[in-house]
Amino acid sequence: MDHVVLAGMWGLVAGSALLLGAVLGYGVRVPQWVVASVMAFGAGVLLSAVSFELVEEAYDQAGLGPAAIGTVGGAVAYTVGNMWLARRGARHRKRSGHRQAQPSEAQQAGSGLALALGALLDGVPESAVIGVSLVDGGAVSTVTVVAVFISNVPEGLSSSAGMRRAGRGKTYVFGIWGGIAAASTVSAVLGYAVVGALPTAVIAAVTAVAAGAILAMIADTMIPEAFEDAHLAIGLITVSGFLVSFALSHA
């Protein structure tokens, strides 16, 4: 199969988990402790994937310098974007609304668009590295795909539950996550087709940038939601997710 098509297919698979989570979060009354626990597990999975699939890969390809600079650069870029969106109503976009509510459009005009852009900001780096992983050896990183898929389910679940509580309708909620799933496909394709043509050192730096952005996203949006209702067990649940991903990367 053509690698561009393959990259798009795996990007869509990972992104479709957001839509799956949105369906569950909007249509099913999932207990808050379940949402928080799954979010903690997904955070652990992503932490492991970032450590052993992204940063380590960047280090192996280009050394400590590009890996460190890229990771810091990704974290800075994500944080700046997140700060801008936070002032426009997307600060709590991954919150289910149980304790920390998302604003409605009436409460803060433009918050709907900010939520959509926030979801895009969170999803693009994860999908891009799926495409980049095809560059080395022509096979997608199974661990990266699994990690992104597992983490996307609770993200879509929690955020769509918060959107429902804020009074946003089905068309808006499912339109957002369907659009992000499509954007994930495009991001994976561009990750392979564009980044894959660059020098190895640049590929390593881009991989590290994505890693830094994902790490910042975990700390800023996933862990806070998990802590709300699973604070007594969040460490154990997060470690469990980390170990599952670690085992997959060394299988």
Helix content: over 70%
By DSSP, the count of extended strands is 0
The number of helical runs is 8
Mean pLDDT: 81
Main sheet characteristics: none
Measured distance between first and last alpha carbons: 25 Å
Rg over C-alpha atoms, rounded to the nearest angstrom:
17 Å
Fraction of residues in β-strands: under 5%
- How would the global form be characterised? globular
Content-based structural category: mainly alpha
Element order, helices and strands? HHHHHHHH
| Stretches with pLDDT under 50, minimum 5 residues | none
Question: How would you describe what is shown here?
Answer:
By secondary structure, the protein is an all-alpha fold. The protein has eight helices and no strands. It has helices at residues 3-27, 32-62, 64-90, 111-133, 142-165, 170-193, 200-230, 234-249. Helix 1 packs parallel to helix 5 (142-165), helix 2 runs antiparallel to helix 7 (200-230) and helix 4 (111-133) runs antiparallel to helix 5. It is globular, with a radius of gyration of 17 Å. The two termini are 25 Å apart. 57% of the residues are buried. The mean pLDDT is 81.
